[in-house]
Structures are given as structure tokens and as C-alpha cells.
Amino acid sequence: MVSAEGCVIDLDGTLYHGGAPIPGAAEAIHRLRSAGIPICFATNTTRRPRSALVARLASMGINVEPDELHTAPVAAAVWLAQNGARRISLLLDPATFEEFSNFEVEHEAPDHVVVGDLGDAWDFHVLNRAFRALLAGAELVAIQKNRSWDGGSGLQLDAGPFVAALEYATGCEAVVVGKPSPAFFDTAALALDVPVSRLAVVGDGIATDVAGGQAAGCRTIAVRTGTFREDQLAELGRPPDAVINSIADLPELMGV
């Protein structure tokens, strides 16, 4: 059993995978809510705004409010505002631009280059434009630095390799604001009004959910769905607090 006062639950690979819900996901969330456990839903995706994620979860029988979604783009917008950003170059799906409506989008002379996942839109021109902006003094911000993700047809490159290319070419080190940044989980704990040490991070990503949650001082629960691989557990300094077959097993693990 894992004792916790709140849960940060990953989306892709944990609640759903390849466009289909994980069996028992909706029932598990209902049981946790019925037990009065505060929940927020965390994701590093930069391809969908919160409004689209709300609709997607609703189609799976999981009703959430936008402010229950703790997304990497939202965390990035908060960080940018706190650090005085005004003009930003956004390297991510235009659908997610709505999370950055308080900033001026400027690709040629930005003060920050903000990198998410552009998918098939990555090309030499986009990378070279960002490279030149960074050489001119812009700061590099990575919404997330995942190596890969599974869109349902197999693994494909995520934003991380492109962030790494810009770091290598410029000598800059990106500020990472999504998972596994401890700041991401700290702000989730604040939103839930739960001490970070009493928060359980639940997800399939060993490097993002488990290692990130551990670095922030959270309890961690890995699920054997999505991108989970048993051999990745050996890469951790210490094992997660629990490993379960799927999100459907979470209520029993937490004693509800």
C-alpha cells in the first residue's frame, strides 16, 4: 500500500494509449475521487491545448475541468511570465499557442526560444532560425525534453532530440519546465494544496514521471502500460514506491 494525500496522474500511456482508454481507467479515477483524494492530471504533450485534452478525456468517461490539467505548456507560460518574457519564438503545434496568449510571438528577434514538439514540421529552416536567435542572446526554454513518444503506430522522436541539437550547436543549456523538472511537481503540489512529500506521482514514464517525482520528493508509482519498460527501472537510483500493472490497480494500492 502507498499512502498519499494527493495524486498527479500522467495522461498518455497511463489513462489512455494510442487513442484508446486503458481498461478500468475511468472507474479508477471515480474511486479515487469518491474517496476524497485530490487529483490533477499531468502531461508533457505540446500538441494539444487543455480544451482538447478535456474533450478527449470526456470521450473516455473521465470528466475533468481545465484547471485540473497540469500541462507542460501551462508550466512554461507561468515560468516565462515570472521571468519577464515578452517576445517568444514558439516551436510547437499552433493548436497550443492559446496557452501563450499573453506573449508576442516573434521568430526573428525573440527574447526566449520555446521548444515543444513540432512533429513533421521540423526542418532545417526552423532549427537554423532558432539557432541564430539563440546566438543573438535569446534564452532556450524546453517545454519538455522527452526522447520519444508512442502515438499508437510505434515510437517516434519527441522534442528532446531537437532541444539537444540546439544545446549542442549553441553551447546553451535549456531551462526545462515540464516533467521531469522538480518545479513541475512543486507547482502541482501547490495547486492541490498537498505537501509535495505527500504527493503520489503515477505514470508510465520512468525518466519523466518516476525519476522526476523522486527528484521533487514525491512518492512514485509506475504503471506497466504505455512506454513502460521493466529494464528502465535499473536506471533509477532507487526503485519507485510501487509498480502496478495499470491505473486500474491504483485505488486498491492506495487502500480505497
Describe the structure.
The protein has helices at 25-34, 50-59, 72-82, 124-135, 160-170, 182-192, 206-216, 250-253, and strands spanning 6-10, 16-17, 20-21, 39-43, 69-71, 87-91, 104-105, 112-115, 139-142, 148-150, 155-157, 175-176, 199-203, 219-223, 242-244. The mean pLDDT is 92. The termini are close together. The protein contains 8 helices and 15 strands. With 256 residues, it is α/β, with parallel strands linked by helices. The chain folds into 2 domains: 6-44 and 179-253, HAD superfamily/HAD-like (Rossmann fold, 3-Layer(aba) Sandwich), CATH 3.40.50.1000; 73-176, Rossmann fold, CATH 3.40.50.
Mind sketching the topology for me?
Blueprint: E1 6-10, E2 16-17, E3 20-21, H1 25-34, E4 39-43, H2 50-59, E5 69-71, H3 72-82, E6 87-91, E7 104-105, E8 112-115, H4 124-135, E9 139-142, E10 148-150, E11 155-157, H5 160-170, E12 175-176, H6 182-192, E13 199-203, H7 206-216, E14 219-223, E15 242-244, H8 250-253
Helix pairs in contact: 4-5, 6-7
Sheet with the most strands, sense and barrel status: 6 strands, parallel
**How many distinct beta strands?**
15
Strand content: 15-25%
Integer tally of domains: 2
Distance between the termini: 10 Å
Q: Topology as H/E string?
A: EEEHEHEHEEEHEEEHEHEHEEH
User: What is the overall silhouette?
Assistant: globular
Multimeric organization: single chain
Round the mean pLDDT to the nearest integer and report it.
92
